[in-house]
Structures are given as structure tokens and as C-alpha cells.
């Protein structure tokens, strides 16, 4: 079950990164440096392109390192919550 969740997380994040790259590239190719997002905010296309590429690099090459980092953070938080669950006799 954990591998399936990891696969879906990788696919989702990769899809998001690809969308950012394609949106940034299409607007730069069209001659516009800015475009508006769903909520009406302005997005600078070169920054969206760079962020999308960085997300794709993390998904392809550095997934194990980021996954280990989050696992260690979860184990630390689990240890702290176990100490808070004591009962006075």
C-alpha cells in the first residue's frame, strides 16, 4: 500500500511540474512574460518554468532523499507525542 501511495505522489507531483513547465514555456514562446493563474494572480513565466523544472528533477532523481527526510521528521514527531500520552496513577 505504501508503494502505491508513493507512486501516486510521484505521478501527481510530476504532472504538476510538467504543467508548470508547459505553461511557462508556452507563454514565453507566445511573447508574454506574465500570465494570470486560476485565482487571478500574476505569474512570472520564467519563474514558473524554473520551479517546474526543479520539481521534475526532484521527482526523477532525488525522490528517495526527500522521502527519507520526511520519514525522519515523522518519526521525531511520533516520539514526542508518545511522551505526551502518559497517565498519572
Cα distance spanning the termini: 39 Å
Structural class, from helix and strand content?
mainly alpha
The main sheet comes to:
2 strands, antiparallel
The average pLDDT value, as a whole number, equals 81
Reading the helices and strands in chain order gives: HEEHH
Number of helices: 3
What fraction of the residues are assigned to beta strands by DSSP?
A: 5-15%
State the helical fraction: over 70%
Find the count of extended strands (DSSP E, 2+ residues).
Answer: 2
Unreliable residue stretches: none
In spatial order, strands of the major sheet run: 1-2
Radius of gyration: 19 Å
Gross morphology is: elongated
What does this structure look like?
This protein is 74% helix and 7% strand. By secondary structure, it is mainly alpha-helical. It has a domain of 52 residues. A hairpin with a 5-residue loop joins strand 1 and strand 2. Helix 1 packs antiparallel against helix 2. It is elongated, with a radius of gyration of 19 Å.
Topology of this protein?
Blueprint: H1 2-29, E1 34-36, E2 42-44, H2 45-61, H3 63-83
Antiparallel strand pairs: 1-2
Helix pairs in contact: 1-2
